[in-house]
Amino acid sequence: MTAKSKSAIVLLSGGLDSMVVAGLAREAGYDLIALTIDYNQRHRIELDSAATIAAHLGAIEHIVLPLDLTRFGGSALTADIAVPKEGVEENAIPITYVPARNTIFLSLCLGLAEARGARDLWIGVNALDYSGYPDCRPEFIRAFEGMANLATKAGVEGDHFSVHTPLLHMSKADIATQAARLGLDAGMSWSCYDPTPDNKACGRCDSCRLRAKGFADAGLPDPTVYA
């Protein structure tokens, strides 16, 4: 693959947002190189969803990269800390925030992009219907993109990287609507942070609440099986 190939590195978690981002990248004419991080997350079932989505969208490559962030801990997703079930607390960063996760993951996307000759990174961050994570804000994305073009051989030689965030200012209802428009089965995606032993969505964590509200607000059926 050369730098002239129209390929995109898509950070594919297996969630609804990442599925829609991948669909939008494909619609824009990119060949998809999907990167999924197996960080030993509590909701590991999302890795199966990522594989299903990558295959459905015809990704030319799907890398599942192991990176055990339970060694760091500091989050309900990577440590023995209960996942909150009482809703999002206003003006507070919840314990489901994984320290520096998007910075770490985008850095891995950047390394893969430079190695593959791709210059476009696509990520499903959202600054509206989200849980207050600092690494989902537009100023973070702008700062990372600037750093990417300072920290790489390609960037300093003028072959610049771009970080695409088409969902940044969408509501969860908008995102659910985009999935339907793209003809993507939302049932392929996984959102729940705390699945039950029989692999049902808990229905009470922040991510489940946002997902359910999004489908309801969009007037679309929610294919999720909730406990």
Automatic annotation (TrEMBL):
It comes from the Bacteria. It is an enzyme of class 6 (ligase). Zn(2+) binds at C192, C202, C205, C208. ATP binds at L12, S13, G14, G15, L16, D17, S18, M19, V20, V21, A22. InterPro entries: QueC, Rossmann-like_a/b/a_fold. Pathway: Purine metabolism; 7-cyano-7-deazaguanine biosynthesis. One of its GO terms (molecular function) is ligase activity, forming carbon-nitrogen bonds. Belongs to the QueC family. Keywords: ATP-binding, Ligase, Metal-binding, Nucleotide-binding, Queuosine biosynthesis, Zinc. Catalyzes the ATP-dependent conversion of 7-carboxy-7-deazaguanine (CDG) to 7-cyano-7-deazaguanine (preQ(0)). It comes from Sphingorhabdus rigui. The keyword Protein biosynthesis does not apply. It catalyses: 7-carboxy-7-carbaguanine + NH4(+) + 2 ATP = 7-cyano-7-carbaguanine + 2 AMP + 2 diphosphate + 2 H(+). Binds 1 zinc ion per subunit. This is 7-cyano-7-deazaguanine synthase. The keyword Metal-binding applies. One of its GO terms (biological process) is tRNA queuosine(34) biosynthetic process.
